[in-house]
Every structure is written in C-alpha cells, then in structure tokens.
Amino acid sequence: MAKVLVTGGAGYIGSHTCLELLNAGHEVVVLDNLSNSSEESLHRVQALASKTLDFVQGDIRDQKILDQIFQTHQIDAVIHFAGLKAVGESQQIPLEYFDNNIAGSISLFQAMQRARVFKLVFSSSATVYGESNISPLNEDMPTGMPTNNYGYTKLIVEQLLQKLSAADERWSIALLRYFNPVGAHKSGQIGEDPQGIPNNLMPYVTQVAVGRREKLAVFGHDYDTPDGTGVRDYIHVVDLANAHLCALNNRLDTQGCRVWNIGTGNGISVLQVKNTFEQVNGVTIPFEFVARREGDVATCFADNTRALKELGWTPKYGLEDMLADSWNWQKQNPNGYRD
Ligand code: NAD
Ligand code: UDP
Predict the structure, then answer these.
(1) pLDDT averaged over every residue in the chain
(2) Is it true that domain 3-183+235-263+303-315 has CATH number 3.40.50.1370?
(3) Coil/strand/helix, residue 127
C-alpha cells in the first residue's frame, strides 16, 4: 500500500480517484486550492469510503506548502490533477493557464525532487495528438500542435516530463492521455460540478435534463461521420480513476516515462449520446443544430491496447452506465455541491 499525494483531488476526476485509492487501502493526502471545486466532494469521498484522508488547501505553485506536505507525510507517489482545464478560457487568459498548468507543475516536480519522491502519474489529454492523426489514436503517433492554449500546456508538461526522466533515471512517470471522461460514482454522491455554463457535452446534457438550460446546441451536423455529428471516446470516470491505480502500481516498481491512452476505444456521436441519454433515463433533451465549434475535430477515439496489455486495466462501464450515472448525480444534486 502506498501513501499518495493527489493534487487537484477535490475536483471531478480527482475525487473519484481518491475514493478508489481509499477503497484499495492506500493513504491519501490531497492538495487543492479549491479554485474549481468544493471541499464537500472530499467529505463525501470519506463518507463513501468510511475512511479519512488528509486535506491541505493550497496551491501547487506554493513551494512552502509543498515542502511542508512532503516533510509531514512519507509520500510514495504523486497523482497530479491540479490545473485549469477550460479550453475557451485558455484563449482569453493564457498566462493564467501557463502559470497554473506549466509553472505549477514545475513547482510540484521541484518539490518532489527535493523530497526524493520520483513516482508520478500525470493527467494528460488526447488533445496532444493534434488534428492530423487519424483515429483510432495510438501512443506511437506523433503529437501535434494543439489548437488551444490549454492543450498546449498539456503537451509542454508531457515534454518536460519526458526530458526530466531521460536526464535522471530515478524518475518513474506515467502520462495518461484521457479521452472524454463522463459519468459519476454509482451512489450519485460525487460527480462533475462545472462552474458557470458547461463547455463539455455531458454536463450540458444533464443540465438541460434537470431544467437549468433550455436546450442543447449540437455543434455541427455536417462532419464526415455516420450521422454528421462529432465522434468522441467517452470513458466512465470510475474506469478512469481505476486506470490511475493501475498506473500507480505499474510505476511503483519501474523507471522511465511511459504514455498510455485511457479511453474505451469506442467512437460515439453527439446524437448517439443525446438519444441514448433519453432512452436510458426516460427524459427528453430539446436540441438544435448550430455551427461547428472552432477547433473541434470530427472524430477522436483511442486505441487503448497498450493500457489493456501493460496496465492490466479494463474499462467496465458502457455508454448506458455513463449516461445513467451522470443523470443520477445531476438529479440528486441539481446545483452540484452548492446545495
Ligand atoms: P477539475 O477542475 O474538476 O479538477 C482540477 C482540480 O485542481 C480542482 O479541484 C481545482 O480546484 C484544482 N486546482 C486548479 N489549479 C490549482 C492549483 N494551482 N493548485 C492547486 N489546485 C488547483 O478538473 P478535472 O476534470 O477533474 O480534471 C483533472 C485533470 O485532468 C486536469 O489536469 C485536466 O486538465 C485533466 N483532464 C481533464 C479532462 C476532462 O475532460 N475532464 C480531459 C483530459 C484531461
Ligand atoms: N458538443 C456539442 N454541444 C455542446 C458541447 C459539446 O455538440 O454543448 C460536441 C462537441 O462538438 C464534440 C462533442 O460534443 O463533438 C464532445 O465535446 P466536449 O467539449 O465534451 O469534448 P471535446 O471536444 O473536448 O472532445
């Protein structure tokens, strides 16, 4: 069993990962500045696990807090989720993104090095593949130039980590390229809680279903896809959380830096998401077709063979589970954690 520092652990993917870590018997310390989350998620994680974790409210750019954490706790590994993730916002306030995501990550890696903690799992994204590769995307394909500043920060941090591990063999790093995380824990107690108008499809759909938004705008229906709408690889957040545990186990006794795609390998269109959501949950989602969203690709899904083979990870949940669980969370928490 390991003691794991989880940066950004109060957020959507972080909270689900903390729960799986506790359930598996690991000890957890969370560092989160709550800039996009609420401590309530961690109260609920602890209640669900019937176990406690340590929470430190603070910023990954704060070296003092980081040193304090590493001095107080015998940390074996770090799972690094903390960062900003809104694509549109990253175009408006790029420096905030460079500072939180790139400078923040460097600050964390420096503190890890001072504390001689060299095991790391990093949240990357399929966005690093850029626009020119054809799905299914595999890890040997070249990375591209992401179309936005958010994606750029992920690519830069990936490259920094590859160079770091090449220069110092003590590092052992997992770069997990997530496809499209959706869904929520079966209990409906924790889930995705975006602030303001959601950028992503799934929270938008559930907010329409719960009456917080009038209708879904489907971005483009003239793509070269079976029904003309964009195709993505949706992955249940609990399967994604478990991929972190598999990556952690893999890294505890290996060195170097390795990339894994974390997706199901299934391409699902926007209309399929909408229609299946309606069928599974018995609700209607009013929608209209609007213009394509700038920077969107037609199709993006994973070749996940490497993760299945090397991490011993298998996604357990299908599209219907993802959509039922997203709705269960939203229905029980119409205003997220703010109730
Ligand atoms: P989230 O916003 O719910 O979680 C991120 C957490 O980090 C939040 O709790 C936030 O308060 C915290 N945080 C932000 N900046 C911080 C800082 N400087 N110091 C300390 N804490 C800070 O996002 P999420 O969906 O859980 O994503 C987690 C990670 O996965 C992010 O790095 C994100 O870029 C990456 N990712 C997410 C997706 C997705 O679609 N959700 C896809 C690919 C990659
Ligand atoms: N999408 C949409 N309406 C929305 C949000 C998203 O039609 O309100 C589409 C988007 O064009 C893409 C898919 O849904 O084809 C997934 O978008 P999301 O933003 O969730 O993920 P990403 O584009 O980052 O893969």
Answers:
(1) 97
(2) no
(3) helix
